[in-house]
Amino acid sequence: MSVSDTHDGSVGFDGIGSEDIDASVSCAACEAVCCRLTVVLMPGDNIAPHLTTRTAQGIDVMARDEEGWCVAVDARRMCCSIYEARPAICRKFAMGGPYCRDIRASHDDSRARGIPLTMY
User: Fold this and answer.
1) CA-CA distance, 98 to 96, in Å (whole number)?
2) Could you read off the pLDDT of 55-114 as tens digits, one per residue?
3) Closest Cα partner for 10 from 88, 66, 77?
4) Collapsing DSSP states into helix, strand and coil, what is residue 24?
5) Using CA atoms, how far apart are residues 88 and 25, in angstroms rounded to an integer?
C-alpha cells in the first residue's frame, strides 16, 4: 500500500481529522499490523462469504489465514486484494492516526521485548 492508497484525509472511525494524522507514518515502514486486527463486518459490507467467518459470539468478521493475516491480503504484493470493496472499518482506518500509532507502538514494544505477535 502506498500513502495515496491508504490516506484520503477523511475522518477516521476514531473521530480523528487530518490534523491528527502523523504524515511521517507510512505503511511501507510497517509490518502491516492493521492487517492482523480483527475486522468486524458492518451490515453494508459486501464481502464474499469465503473471506469471512463468524466468531463464537456470532459476530461476522474477516477471516484470517493460519499466520493471523486477513485473508484479503495478497501476500505476494503485500496489499489488500479487495481494496476497492474493503470493509467500512478498513476504509475508516486512518494511517498515521492515533489508533494506528498506538497499535504500531504496542507491536514494536512487544517485539523489542521478544513477545510474540498478538492477534488483536
Assistant:
1) 7
2) 999 999 999 999 888 999 988 887 899 999 999 999 888 888 888 888 888 888 888 998
3) 88
4) coil
5) 22
